[in-house]
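for the writeup, i need someone to sanity check this before i put it in the appendix. the sequnce is what the collaborator sent (i think, or maybe the updated version? ugh). structure was predicted straight from it, no edits. if anything looks off just tell me and ill rerun, i have time this weekend
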Amino acid sequence: MKFRPIPVAIALAALAVLALVLWRAGLFGGATEPAVTEPTGGVPVPVADALPAGYVGSPACGKCHAAEFEAWSGSQHAIAMQVADEKTVLGDFNDAKFRHFDQTTTFSRRDGKFIVRTDGPDGKQADFEVLHTFGVYPLQQYLIDIGRGHVQALTIAWDTRPKAEGGQRWFHLYPTERIGHDDELHWTKRQQNWNFMCSDCHSTDLQKNYDAAGDTFATRWSEISVGCEACHGPGSDHVAWAEAAASGDKPTGPNGLSVSFASRRHAAWKIDPATGNATRSKPRDSDAEIEVCAQCHSRRGQFSNGYRPGEELMDHYLPALLTADLYYPDGQQRDEVYNWGSFLSSRMYSKGVTCGDCHEPHGGKLRAAGNGVCAQCHLASKYDAPAHHFHEAGTPGAACASCHMATTTYMVVDPRHDHSFRIPRPDLSTTLGVPNACNKCHEDRTPAWAAAEIRRRYPNPKPGFQDFAEAFAAADRGEPDASIALAQLVANQDESAIARASALERLARLGGENAFLSAEAALKDASPLVRHAAVGVFENAPLDALLHEDRPG
């Protein structure tokens, strides 16, 4: 079989895009962290910063935005990271002991400090001081500096749930594994390094400041936790703008913030009584709000320092796609992916829903309790009724989220909802082995039973918005014929961008003419996710496959 050669111009263009990505990642020496002066008043000052605005701290915002500040003050964002003290440390440090395989760890207090005695980088028992708490519910971790600025997250955590729910105890994040000091998952190793793995999402204006020559970190932040400016951008220009207005001046132009969350402004959802579903009064014209959330609520790699809200997400981060190691073939969450990727694959996103439609952004709570949050857009008399969900009202099975946002538990005690908002498909469980919401509750029944029950109640069941399961499953099994279905998926503009990009990722592994043709067209796609995935097809291809006509099929 002979493939049509990719035009040299297209191949070179793809390689140029790849070079830009690598340059941004620092692999060609182009991306470096901005130089940072000594902290002034605890705030690092970037020297070579294109934006003149500086960070002022959340209390400065609260002077004018009292209601928003109060809501934020009671949120988990406000206490995502804290200095360890009597008020913030929730764990039992009264000489409590915890044994994991052959290691015993002791938690105690000494001279007002919180001390952990456990196996260190060399495997020997030693005392380590807890400097900061990390998170608050349903678990809290503890951060320890082991030298050279390397701050590590202890893998023994405190379960902050009530005792009646199994909480108020120490537990290991890898309960079934013996993690020795030479294991990459040991608390002293890179996979548990706060600077590299965690810090960017738990503090505001985080500068990692890693020095490769000395293997040292001098990590700094403007605000220890996730403050107002983590989402709204540096606020000094906005404060000046507001002060000018308060003094009687009439400032013109932008309000000084780096991002505007205007996509929901003057937009409303109106429920159509005939369908029971809502439509948006005007299309979502920006993903700014969603991308600001995505900086932390997505599985992604970071290749550029200094992200400011309002900038393009993929100018700083490379989000994970719906790959087989992270997601099931139908797009359900498998690993810990933090919701954004799932949400992008949903019908909700395609119809214009944003994070803030369901979550009040300052307090982080749902806009309404229980099924009420769904009833904002879905007629309760039609959907919040036994005729729809076939469960007794008020029971877990009657909850919208039970069927359409099934949970998976991560970090031993933290159940998280899948945000792909899918129709349960137990029939796919029988053919592809993927999980389904029905059998997560009805564990004593088979997927075949669940599929039959759905068909009995819905003789013509809807397949759901995500219709790529069979194509992805075939590709993940390495079936060459899967490339045809994948190519069709890439070309279908009605599919979500993340699904199309994920199809390209699989085509890159399969290779062949379908991969090249799909990638050639996708280089001009409107979505940066799709364009980046298209570059990956050319990146993984041998040079002769790009430039020569006679190549093996």
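Confidence is low (pLDDT under 50) at residues 1-51, 549-553. The longest strand covers residues 103-110.
thx in advance!!
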